[in-house]
Amino acid sequence: MIKPFKTYQLPDNLEDEINALEQNVERFKRGEISLVEFKVQRVPFGCYEQRKKDTYMVRIRCAGSVVKPQQLKKIAEISKVHAASYIHLTTRQEIQLHYVLLDSLIPVIRELKTVGLSPRGGGGNTIRNIMAQEDAGIAADEAFDVSPYAIALTTRFTSEPDSWNLPRKYKHAFSGSAEDRGYASIHDVGFIAKIKDGQKGFKVYLAGGLGAKPQLAIVVHDFIPESEVYNVAKAAKNLFYKNGNRKNKHAARLRFVLKKLGEVEFKRKYFEELEAVHKEHYPPLEISEIDNVAVDPGIPVDTVADRKDFELWKKRFVQEQKQKGAFCVILPAHLGHVDNDNAIALADFLAPFGENTLRIRKDQNFLVRNIPEKYLPNVYTMLKAHFENFNQPFIIDKIIACAGASTCQLGICLSPGAATAIKRTLEHVDFDLDAASDARINISGCPNSCGQHHVGHIGFYGKVSRKGDKVIPAYNVMTGGKVKDGETELAQQVGEIASKDVPNLVRDALKTYVGKKAKYPTFEEYTRSEEGRADIKALCATYKKDSDLAQEYYFDWGTDKIFSVAERGKGECSAGIFDLIESDLGHIQKAQKLIEEIETNGGDAGQKAGLLKDVVFYSSRVLLVSRALEPKSVQEAYNYFREHFINTGLVEKSFDDLLKIAESGDFNALIDKKDRVFALATRMQLLYDVMDPSFNFQLPGGEVITAPADKVGMTASASATAAKTAVQDAVAGKPAAVKDFRGVGCPMNFVKTKIELAKLKPHDILEIYLDDGAPIENVPGSVREEGHKVLAQKKVGDHWTVLIQKQ
């Protein structure tokens, strides 16, 4: 008898969290909380704002790549009512719903809960979806099935409060063999299954990751017994929680802790945390083994008319499992898009074969498993009826592309459009594409590697290229990525190319390889060889454009709008408590400026009194979130401030008089105490400046006041509404400083810009001179992501002048 098939268990407090999110949706609609405050609520719930105004993407956790047929059906049914006409499979083995309206967020989340699914942790500074190689449990080369461990670790971690309050997003992966098909060696925490002396266990990697600054993980254990998985994962999480850089999102991942500390100190701290975890005597993970058995549903076997096409399909997409008589089938889904009706049809087809029949592949396709051989014709017939072009060479639908500028706020290029253009080009080639079926082609719309371009055999990442005074969409070209235990290497850049030339470059590279396949059995071997890299570099050079460009080059794939980066927004992955702190600091600075203007120019005393009250309130509230406190009213903010800042000695007791005046409502009494009010604001700014990444206050003289370790909240719901910015887009007056960074390369030009900005007061203007090319392409965007405002950028002769306002 087949054992019940368990996926991850939802945390007991999930309904309470959904209710809290629902309340904040309503408060946001009423204008009671700001956009920033609402973002802090929804992003850790896997709800991201999309480029289309007032629409959201919901990312659903599918631990270990598992989704049951009935879960898939429910997701597609939800999508038909509340989202787009399709569902989307991600490279992290999740499912996304797109274009969900604000009023539909809570109904969507509640409907998912009915089938044991949740988007909690789909975004923000959280434990993200825990991956496992998609063929876990059925692969002939695996040590053992790793998916139960990914599922069990998900269940444990999603019940722990600190999993939602990390310095940055945090990713795990499990692989079943040294082939590392789960990509453990490029994750924050990676486990590779091994058998030692007859005992199940894992090799453990830490501090890997891709992104704009990729890093291979380091080995911290050659072998741990399976009972140690939770302890090791917990120790690594504690290390990250305490040492991750919460202030700078660009240096916040675990790999930056490794870089800062060095490998020796990093390992020392890790083993120190592991020793502390062992003293807690946590129970090991509860592992529920998964039966991989081909269930005979007793339905009629279909007859296939076109045997030749059927046999070709089996050759391309069907493989026997290690379980005799059971087969798995790759189901292509171009760019991870599956129409809702087709997803429902697939779920209905698989239901008679049992719950354990479906996984999500890292290349954004489905893997159907545990199908008896005699029913392969039924699978073929179903695909033919519902999935267009299901029997093309696999390379056509194996191309990985991130969402790019179509929906992502950070996207530069329309990477899905480029992938679709490659698909159209490859559908009409004159050589055998099946000979290159193992090729990995990865496309990211920006340097952040959501399309995993660093591990592609050929990888692309979006950039802005300039032709004279105009810009065009373009890509840097990478080759030679490899992922394998002990042998993982990242792809290296060999050139750059206009977006419009990407499809032809891919076609030419594949054709060149097919002609040399006798020498290089795999595409990976070819792209990692000196000959292969030289070939692709030469191809890039053939597409270099020195003369005037045709008009089409100024448009990206899949759009009729001329290319521009003007709509590029600020990413939301870092939504967290620092957004709230800096929002309140901004309110304080604005109020102080207005008070000074009243004193200089004359003004209403009542207005001045009200502004002084605002400074007292925001100063009281600004750092409460660092103590896991969520004031629901003005009075509660004052009460918390007394308890956690005045009574603890962080703030002098004499400041309590200001709170008492504010509480009394006699705000005019604050006018004579303006210097004390400003002194309180200065004290809170100082505390923020000395606050370390773990929310401890490193006070002058060496005293350290620590934060409540596991309670720093990501769900602050302060009551103030968003204030209008005091700064207009155009600012009159001279820059406070002018710096010439011509001749300074990336990234030092950005570093120098940050240093100069640090010297200025808020709202001061810095003017910098930058060279054309990479400096002007990168520095303004990086400045924006630091929170400053780029007021203008203009080309002057052979260089650019950029005006930046410090925020």
In short:
The chain has 807 residues and is of the alpha+beta class. Helix content is 35%, strand content 17%.
User: Going across the major beta sheet, what is the strand order?
Assistant: 1-2-4-3-12
Strand content: 15-25%
Helix content: 25-40%
CATH architecture of the largest domain: 2-Layer Sandwich
Could you explain the architecture of this structure?
- The protein has 807 residues and is α+β, with helices and mostly antiparallel strands.
- Helix content is 35%, strand content 17%.
- It contains 22 helices and 25 strands.
- It has a five-stranded antiparallel β-sheet with strand order 1-2-4-3-12. The protein has a five-stranded mixed β-sheet with strand order 5-6-7-8-9, with helices on one face. It has a five-stranded mixed β-sheet with strand order 15-16-17-18-19.
- α13 packs antiparallel against α15 (530-542) and α16 (577-601) packs antiparallel against α17.
- The termini are far apart.
Features:
five-stranded antiparallel beta sheet, 807 residues, Sulfite Reductase Hemoprotein, domain 1, 25 strands, alpha+beta, Sulfite Reductase Hemoprotein, domain 2, globular, five-stranded mixed beta sheet, 17% strand, 5 domains
How are the SSEs ordered, and which strands pair?
Elements: H1 14-29, H2 35-42, E1 47-49, E2 55-60, H3 69-82, E3 86-89, E4 95-101, H4 105-113, E5 131-132, H5 147-157, E6 172-175, E7 189-196, E8 199-206, E9 218-225, H6 229-243, H7 254-261, H8 263-280, H9 307-317, E10 318-320, E11 326-331, E12 337-339, H10 340-350, E13 358-360, E14 366-372, H11 376-386, E15 400-401, H12 415-426, E16 441-444, E17 458-467, E18 470-479, E19 492-498, H13 502-514, H14 523-528, H15 530-542, H16 577-601, H17 605-621, H18 634-646, H19 656-664, H20 674-690, E20 697-698, E21 704-705, E22 737-740, H21 748-758, E23 765-771, H22 774-785, E24 789-796, E25 799-805
Parallel strand pairs: 5-6, 6-7, 15-16, 16-17, 22-23
Antiparallel strand pairs: 1-2, 2-4, 3-4, 3-12, 7-8, 8-9, 10-11, 11-14, 13-14, 17-18, 18-19, 20-21, 23-25, 24-25
Helix pairs in contact: 1-2, 3-10, 6-8, 7-8, 10-11, 12-13, 13-15, 16-17, 17-20, 21-22
